[in-house]
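Worked problem 6 (solution included).
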Amino acid sequence: MGGCLTEFFSKMTWFGEMGTTLAIMATIYWCVDKRIGTYLLMGWSGNRIVNGVLKVTACAYRPWIRDPQIAPDPAAMVTATGYSFPSGHTMNAASLFGGIAVRRDLRWDFRAFM
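Solution. The predicted structure is:
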């Protein structure tokens, strides 16, 4: 079935995928500023640990496992494994974009964009 924004949000999850966020952080480390790159990678590493502990503590199954009436996008079901809460995509994106947004040594307009 799907809604009108399914395709848009499916594309937006790309920004939260681990490979994407790591590639951006590595590019920042090697091409922009090693201090900021290290800051982002260390924050991301710590967040991965916290995220893993919260996942096994909450043990929140995917919505379609708890309720068979929920029918997600079939393409999303292939990669959606494990527990659903807290979201790994959200944690990855927050580590990258939030980490940049809180850096006071960057321009305010760039931080606001993040």
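Discussion: The mean pLDDT is 81.
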